[in-house]
Structure formats: structure tokens, C-alpha cells
Amino acid sequence: CLYEGIPMAMIIEQAGGVASTGYFQSKIQRILDLVPTSIHCRCPIVMGSKRDVQVVYDMYRKEMGIANVPMIGAE
Predict the structure, then answer these.
(1) N or C: which end of the chain has fewer CB within 10 A?
(2) Which region, left, alpha or beta, applies to residue 22 given φ > 0 means left and ψ of -120 to 50 means alpha?
């Protein structure tokens, strides 16, 4: 995540998109909020427009029954 995920997340978010870890370590969070534990740490990456990432979040809510899935733009 340190060399690939975090730099890509910075670019995506600066362009108005969303860069998320998806459902990882029992929560959903921004990639930029990750604290790398090693140089070669790994995490899932869900990146794209707000609408596209919201589709993935909605699938988590529906298929996995995860209640605390954030709504993008509802801040």
C-alpha cells in the first residue's frame, strides 16, 4: 500500500474521487488514513468516482449485511 496504493489514492481524491480499502480489518476506511506497518504492506483497494465506489459500498450493505457502511457525500 505504501508505494502503490497511497500515491494513487492521493491522485484519485484530488480529482474528486474516492479511494477506499473496502471492507478490510473489520472496517471501511480511506486509504490515506492507513498507517503502513511495513514497506510492503498490502490492503484491498477500491478507487473511482463517488458513484462507482458507492455501488461497491451498497453491495457490502446488501450482500454482507454490514450496517455501518458509509454513504458517500453524506458528511
Answers:
(1) C
(2) left
Cell of 51: 458513484
Number of other CB atoms surrounding residue 67 within 10 Å: 7
User: Rounded to a whole number, what is the distance in angstroms from the first to the last CA of the chain?
Assistant: 26
What are the pLDDT digits (tens) for 26-57?
Answer: 888 899 999 888 888 888 999 999 999 999 98
Kindly calculate the radius of gyration of the chain based on its CA atoms and give it in whole angstroms: 12
Q: What angle do CA 18, 23, 62 make, to 5 degrees?
A: 95
Residue 43 near residue 21 (C-beta atoms within 8 A): yes
Q: Rounded to two decimals, what is the model's pTM?
A: 0.80
26-52 CB burial, b ≥16 within 10 A, e <16: eebeebeebeeeeeeeebebbbeeeee
